[in-house]
Amino acid sequence: MTSIKIGIVGLGRLGKVHAKNIAKHTPGAELYAACSFIEEELEFAKNELGVTETYKTYEEMVDSLNLDAVVIVSPSGFHPEQIRLAIEKGLHVFSEKPIGLEIEDIEKTIEVIDAHPEQIFMLGFMRRYDESYQYAKKMVDEGQLGELTVVRCYGIDPSSGLESFVKFAGASNSGGLFADMSIHDIDLVRWFTKQEVSRVWAIGKNAAYPELDKVNELETGAAMMQLEDRTMAILVAGRNAAHGYHVETELIGTKGMLRVAAAPEKNLVTVFDEHGVVRPTSQNFPERFSEAFKNEMNEFIACIQEKRQPEVSAYDGLQSTKVAIACQQSVDTKQLIDLDVLVKA
Asked: Where is each GFO/IDH/MocA-like oxidoreductase domain found (predicted)?
């Protein structure tokens, strides 16, 4: 079978994860092209990953007649336009989350995607492809927890990256804590419950770096949500976990409850030394979700080969972004926000 030739845009930390996975761990795919305005990143793509074509602009890359698909790992604000351009060029598209930062822009993008049903579009909600989350989803779908009543999610980045984020926030727009980080947890809430969020109340605090107040960014945030069937969801998002990368999900139902990664353990090792009894923890997302990233890219290629759309859709991206925007509006206005009267961002 002919390999699917892929071009990638964005070779930052996450971009390198996807690029390496495509080049080395994705059967049926070839990392054929790469796009970045940073020369060192293009040299990395050529020398380390064997990329054939390199580009300084995305427009030039999608004009290549050699490509079958693109993987978009650029800053969030570029995603909608880049998705639309690739789709209109006849390419299959994998885009990292979020699908966009503005509702109208996302809706415009979905119109273009829907107008080309023969092309595959997939959004990077990789937690759906994590073995532990899939195990939990099967339990929920089989009714082993009964009716879900509460979903609680923690998503906290390691404190080692906070200082660099503060510098980034002063020069760029991340989309805000909820769109940048909680978007994964919001997707999990919708995925597990099969319900939409109807209202949110969110708050936040900047403690380690109060200067984030000046750029309307949050170091730590929390949100309480009510879903359409009155199921409750609680999110805690942050950028300051001293022990490492902490992603945890709790599902409480009428017949039982479960927790995914109650402690962010790196492996099954327990260390006994002068520090006491210690369980090593994951320190970053590429480590914690290494297999999930590989699994989702394999699914993208399988969808192209089998001519079927993936479970994760552009609509999932739209709905999750709506909730993230509502959370930020709640923080800004100090009000409870109803999703059906959400002001378009």
From this structure: 133-259
- What domains sit in the chain, N to C, each tagged with a CATH number? 4-125 (3.40.50.720), 128-291+320-341 (3.30.360.10)
Residue entry with tokens 């980045």: 157
Q: Which residues of 105-142 are buried (b: 16+ CB within 10 A; e: fewer)?
A: bbeebbebbeeeeebbbbbbbbbbbbeebeebbebbee
| Helix/strand/coil for 213 | helix
Q: Measured between alpha carbons, how far is 63 from 201 in angstroms, rounded to an integer?
A: 45
Which DSSP category does 98 fall into? P
pTM for the whole structure: 0.94
Return averaged pLDDT per consecutive 10 residues of the chain, 345 residues in all.
93 96 98 97 97 98 97 96 98 97 96 98 98 98 98 96 84 82 97 98 95 90 98 97 96 98 91 93 95 98 98 97 96 95 59
Q: Which residues pair with 50 in a beta bridge?
A: none
Q: How far is CA 42 from CA 24, 55, 76, in A?
A: 17, 8, 20
pLDDT at 345: 46
